Amino acid sequence: MFNKEDIKKLAKLANLPIKESEYEKFASQLSEIISYVKQLERIDSNQVEPTFNVTGLKNINWGDKVEPSLTQKKSLQNAKMQRNGFFVTKGIFNE
Amino acid sequence: MNDLTDLTLTETLEALDNKKISEEELNRAYQQKIDNLNPILNAYLYICQGSSGIPYAVKDVIVTEGIPTTAGSKILEGFIPPYNATVIERLSYHNLRIIGKTNCDEFAMGSSGENSAYGPTKNPWNLNKVPGGSSSGSAVAVSAGLCSFALGTDTGGSIRQPASLCGVVGLKPSYGRVSRYGSIAMASSLDQIGPITKSVADARLILSWIQGEDGYDNNAVSYSNIKSQTKKSDNLSGIKIGVPKEYFGKGLDTGVESAVKKAISKMEELGGQIIDISLPCTEYAIATYYILMPSEVSSNMARFDGIRFGTDRDNFGQETKRRIMIGTYVLSSGYYEDYFIKAAKVRTLIKQDFERAFEKCDVIVGPVSPTTAWNLGAKMADPLAMYLSDAYTVPASLAGIPSISLPCGFSDGLPVGLQILGKYLDEEKILTIAEVYEQSTEWHKMKPTVDMS
Predict the structure, then answer these.
(1) Residue A48 near residue B349, CB atoms below 8 Å
(2) Do B329 and A89 count as a contact with CB atoms less than 8 A apart?
(3) Ranges of each domain in chain B
(4) A9 by DSSP, 3-state: which?
């Protein structure tokens, strides 16, 4: 069902570095898993509403108040790269 | 006083209150046991020294300010959280101390503990066996007496199944009972934090401490709070106990079946009324779960970009990569309706199964895991076989209902757990019934002897 090309495409979509040597294995494992979950096709669920959240809660909002939160220093403490108190990210528009 | 590390949390609090033991003695006893056993069991990834407070363990997917937190992943190696999870803040008011962070499957994805990037945890009952997962280190730390209790997380069985395989108590609260703020998210519509303990009374006490909304987890609710203690009862008269036929079918190990059926007979002896029920959609639970959960995983794992924290995405382990790809596939355009929406609809049917069953009974009982602990390595090459081992725990997760695992016997020297499931937000009832059952048996007093040779 899945071939090497499919895995390559999925890996790209998911921003996942996958080694060439892993394509074959993932292709066969994903094929097996997806064929297994396909058994849901047997169930007639046309009249059934989907459940995304069991609590049934909707549009829960908190007051728009400023509260104590992390300092800039703490927020940055785990960043690999930072400059002038900001995170350094990859460029988006500079290619 | 015998071995202090055998004391339950409730007994420890009493012994400290009566000045029979000191906090220093208590901490020394646990520390010594960790020094002796952790090199063999690999339950802890990080150990915090200290001599005051009651020591407890925290699964390494829960963030702890200033204490390294890896979620069992190389991608978070060296990560020092700048804040505490809500559960950690709440426990800090009860004279408790974090004694260490426990090993787990990477980002809580696994059923055996073997998906940790820091090596597998061993089952203290038999070092060749898995402890279950993903809260592997937490269950082992409680079972082997390396902490007074532990926190775990449960998305599809990750508290209950390792508790069952290690012979301790594990409680998955209702979805929304406990705030997940500070729990590294795996599948947000399923994740819950809960206690792994040496007794049911301990699980109740800890739940009473950590429950309720905090203003950070929009799904956390605060009504009908669980009491920290309850009036002791010694029987189950008037309680209707549902036994689903689907939990006793193909794939259930005979040793497990026999232990669980004896537990059900015991409950009947205690005055409970046993009622045969059916949960017809049980067979579809794993398929439903393995669409919905990876979908949420693929989205939650997108935050690991190596910019704000963590390292590069090639440091994800095999299982994490597998689930990210499954999730990406079932959510992709053209497949979304067929997989994701379909599974969300079947989730409704599974939830309705329980609602219908609870019209006839107060609680539902059955096995936690179809087998006892299996050999290390046995299922690592076959992900689907690993997934199927969660067949009895996943349905409660999908329905959001509370469920507890407690020791109910042994099969070939390995612990068997009894699962008691309750109505949404009715932890009170499953805890009360579990307490009555536990008081009438000796299983929870059995401790493993770790082979030191």
Answers:
(1) yes
(2) no
(3) 4-225+233-445
(4) helix
Q: Does B288 contact A at CB distance below 8 Å?
A: yes
Q: In B50-135, which residue ranges form alpha helices assigned H by DSSP?
A: 86-91
Extract the tokens encoding A49: 């509403």
> What mean pLDDT value characterizes chain B?
96
The catalytically annotated residue of B143, B158, B295, B405 is B158
pLDDT in tens, B60-108: 999 999 999 999 999 999 999 999 999 999 999 999 999 999 999 999 9
Q: What's this model's pTM, rounded to 2 decimal places? A: 0.97
Four-way CATH pick for B4-225+233-445: 3.40.50.720, 3.50.50.60, 3.10.450.330, 3.90.1300.10: 3.90.1300.10
Q: What is the DSSP letter of B303?
A: G
* Rg, Å, chain B Cα set: 20
CA–CA dist B210, B191 (Å, integer): 15
**Is B224 a residue whose pLDDT tops 80?**
no
Tens digits of residue pLDDT in B233-271: 899 999 999 999 999 998 999 999 999 999 999 999 999
Residue type, A39: Q
B82, A16: Cβ pair inside 8 Å? no
Contacts of A14 in chain B (CB under 8 A): 298, 324-325, 327-328
With a CB cutoff of 8 Å and minimum separation 6, the contacts of B301 are B107, B316, B320, B324
Cis peptide leading into residue B403 (ω within 30°): no
φ and ψ at residue B78, rounded to 5 degrees: 85, 0
Cis peptide bond upstream of B134, omega within 30: yes
Which among A63, A57, A87, A76 has a CA at the least distance from the CA of B82? A76
Unique residue bearing structure tokens 């703020």: B181
**Which amino acid is located at B24 in the chain?**
E
Q: Which residues 6+ apart lie within 8 Å of B238 measured at CB? A: B271, B273
CB A2 within 8 A of CB A34: yes
